[in-house]
Specification:
Layout: H1 5-18, H2 22-30, H3 35-39, E1 41-44, E2 47-51, H4 61-76, E3 83-88, H5 94-102, E4 106-112, H6 115-127, E5 135-139, E6 157-162, H7 169-173, H8 177-180, H9 196-206, E7 211-220, H10 226-233, E8 239-244, E9 250-256
Parallel strand pairs: 3-4, 3-6, 4-5, 6-7
Antiparallel strand pairs: 1-2, 7-9, 8-9
Domain Methyltransferase: 81-148
Keywords: Methyltransferase, S-adenosyl-L-methionine, Transferase
InterPro entries: HemK-like (IPR004556), Methyltranfer_dom (IPR025714), N5-glutamine_MTase (IPR050320), PrmC_N (IPR040758), SAM-dependent_MTases_sf (IPR029063)
């Protein structure tokens, strides 16, 4: 494996900034460790230095794209009151933190089953200058039938976002070592057909009082899953649309209460 010039440049900068040997960083990359984990940060929209570390999922550019689009929509709607947002499976906190950064009216809560993710998301809030009054991440299993059992979850919410696990076990076996050996499989595999978490989210959307009367739902989906997720959400009575990512994939299912 020969490192691309840009990767080598980033590793040289990381070595200088952290007083680590360049040789050790190069060896980690040659062992397929993701560049973002070695450097320790990943830009995400206007958040230039979002902290990342294993095993929490590294934010992807396709996620960045729809979150920026959602922020533009929320800002253009010019709400006169605060917007309450719940992010399910928050990971690094990239989705709610970017929305908080771009939309001053957003007050967000993140939930994740991983203590590593919850800790990282709260660290990132502090690094990004988002106060606790506008974002907090909590440990919770939204798949559990009793969710939510904590006072930290305070519906109704105006916005529900999620980039849930959505690949199948077979697809997981085909992932590169960069992903499979370092990122948490529970943040990647969405049940036997990749759709398990969308079924759970649909049940939350349909639950009386969980979302506000003008609520909006934004769900990232796998490249072939948009139609199936739309079919799940259709019975809720929400108006459904699909956003395409810059690579031409149906990437985000949007549901808005009519």
């Amino acid at each position: 494996m020969r490192l691309p010039f840009n990767e080598l440049r980033w590793l040289k900068r990381a070595a200088l900034d952290s007083n680590r040997s360049l040789e050790s960083l190069i060896q980690r990359r040659l062992n397929h460790e993701p560049l973002q984990y070695i450097i320790g940060t990943q830009p995400f929209g206007a958040l230039d230095n979002l902290r990342v570390r294993p095993p929490v999922l590294i934010p992807r550019p396709e996620t960045e794209n729809w979150v920026i689009r959602l922020a533009e929509y929320l800002c253009s709607s010019s709400p006169s009151r605060n917007i309450s947002l719940l992010d399910l499976g928050t990971g690094s906190g990239c989705i709610p933190l970017l929305l908080c950064h771009l939309c001053p009216k957003v007050i967000a809560t993140g939930v994740d089953i991983s203590p590593h993710a919850v800790r990282l998301a709260n660290e990132n809030a502090e690094l990004c200058g988002i106060p606790h009054s506008r974002f907090k991440a909590f440990l919770g299993d939204f798949v559990h039938p009793g969710f939510p059992k904590t006072e930290a979850i305070n519906p109704p919410y105006d916005i529900l976002t999620s980039n849930p696990p959505y690949i199948t076990p077979d697809e997981y076996l085909q992932l590169s070592d960069d992903v499979a050996k370092f990122e948490d499989p529970t943040a990647l595999i969405g049940g036997y057909d990749g759709l398990e978490f969308y079924r759970v989210i649909t049940s939350l959307v349909a639950r009386p009082g969980f979302l506000s009367h003008k609520a909006m739902v934004a769900l990232e989906v796998g490249h072939s899953q948009a139609d199936a997720v739309c079919d799940m959400l259709n019975p809720t009575g929400f108006r459904i649309s699909v956003w395409t990512d810059p690579w031409g994939k149906k990437r985000t299912v949007i549901a808005q209460r009519q």
